[in-house]
Design goal:
It is built from six helices and five strands, in the order βααβαβαβαβα. It is α/β, with parallel strands linked by helices. Strands 3-2-1-4-5 form a five-stranded parallel β-sheet, covered by helices on one side. It is globular.
Length: 163
């Protein structure tokens, strides 16, 4: 067991927690929604200073883990974006490309799995429903309220299981 295996985990969401998705919301406001366009624009997401600062602060005492509702097909772009922001390396948990369950289910499932072997110091996420369920399950949660909520993204997360 290495020293990093003993550190508690700080788990961070990406979209609207670390990455500002406002510029790509337009892809979800169409009918039908343009999911390919939405995810293709992710590399251009500006970083959110409050989220970035919190990751860096947590990295002083914790191993960082990224937990996103983005599909697995976005992994390369996601890893490149994290590196470009100078964020700590960490495991990135993404949804399977065919997984359409609500974010609150997929994320809680992964949190519980991680908690079997490691202390989770904090979950940081912008999704109110994810935060509520994680709190109910006994996790310490910081709700990332530093971006304006998007009703379109909320529907995508909860009803369509897309992000």
């Amino acid at each position: 067991m290495t020293d990093s295996d003993k550190l508690p985990l700080a788990v961070f969401d990406l979209d609207n927690t670390l990455a500002d998705t406002a510029h790509r919301q337009r892809f979800l406001e169409r009918s039908p929604r343009d999911w390919d366009g939405f995810f293709a624009a992710a590399p251009e997401d500006p970083p959110i200073p409050e989220g970035i600062a919190l990751v860096l602060k947590c990295a002083e005492e914790c191993e960082i883990v990224y937990l996103t509702g983005r599909p697995e097909r976005c992994r390369r772009d996601t890893l490149d974006w994290l590196a470009a922001q100078g964020l700590p390396e960490g495991r990135v948990h993404m949804r399977r490309n065919d997984d359409r369950r609500p974010a609150r289910r997929t994320k809680l499932e992964i949190l519980k799995r991680l908690a079997r072997t490691r202390e989770i110091r904090v979950l940081v996420d912008d999704d109110e429903l994810v935060c509520e369920d994680a709190r109910r399950a006994g996790f310490t949660v910081v709700r990332a309220s530093w971006t304006a909520p998007s009703a379109t993204l909320e529907v995508a997360q909860e009803r369509e299981g897309r992000t």
